[in-house]
Amino acid sequence: MNALATTAAVLLATVSLAQNPNVQDEFFSGRLRQQGDALVFCTWDRAATGPLDAAIAHKSAEILLLDVRVEVIEQDVDLSGEEMLQWIWVLLSDECDLFLGFNLVTGIYPAWLTPSRPYLDAPYVAAVSNQEYSSLADVPRGSLVGSQLYTQLDNILTVNLREQGEQADWRRLPYDDPEMLLHHVNEGIIEAGILWGPRYSALLHDGLVPDGVKTVDLPPSLASITDQIGAMAFTRNSWLISEFDAAISELIQSEELARLIREHDIHARVPNTR
């Protein structure tokens, strides 16, 4: 997995815009999506939550008594800056009613995008190869610990270790490739690695987690850090978000969402609140 794919973990679950660049009005002029007879959900081909996103789309459409089509969008542009916002606008104009798999970080999206309620609450995991470890806290002080770049947890870990100074628990080694991080854990190059739970699940499902690697508990200060995943639509179509939110609420109340998460065997859980 290259840096482009890794950045997608933040922009999605894979879309976290570190900046909120301006998109010129003339870029958007004259664009109107031709509505068909189906509600079109879009997902990213490299999204760690992609298969679950698609399943949630189908179940939501069933509740709303609508036909549904899920379009898997290939990521082939830089996933940051103005170009990314332009691409999202074009996709919502021409192909998608709702775009799934967004990391619902507050304050980073432009006014023309409206988020849904979260449908996933996704924690981070620690990976080790020492079978005697049951928690990241068991990793000796001063050890090298890999951390997945462009993630909320990596930002917090960086600040925490900097504040600890010479008494820092571990030495952080950043990785933009989660697969390489896991291989370095397995080879003993680093003592442990921290990455986003759904990304670990996706690598595990693809057979890319080395046999000698397992996950262990994070300390409480890190275990509480999660990314909430939801959908986006044009603000002018915010009624779609309202309908989708109602469907997600029903999926939660019926425990169907919890069943889907178990079925896809992903490191995520049902959100507690909107």
Write structural notes for this entry.
- It is a single chain.
- By secondary structure, the protein is α/β, with parallel strands linked by helices.
- The chain has 2 domains: 3-121 and 227-264, Periplasmic binding protein-like II (D-Maltodextrin-Binding Protein, domain 2, 3-Layer(aba) Sandwich); 123-223, Periplasmic binding protein-like II (D-Maltodextrin-Binding Protein, domain 2, 3-Layer(aba) Sandwich).
- Helix content is 37%, strand content 21%.
- It is built from 10 helices and 10 strands.
- α5 (152-164) links the parallel β6 (144-148) and β7.
- α3 (50-63) packs across α9 (238-253) and α3 (50-63) runs antiparallel to α10 (256-264).
- The longest helix is centred in the last third of the chain and has 16 residues, at 238-253.
Unreliable sequence segments: 1-21, 28-32
Q: Nearest-angstrom radius of gyration?
A: 19 Å
Count of helical stretches: 10
Summarize the helix and strand pattern as letters.
HHEHEHEEEEHEHEHEHEHH
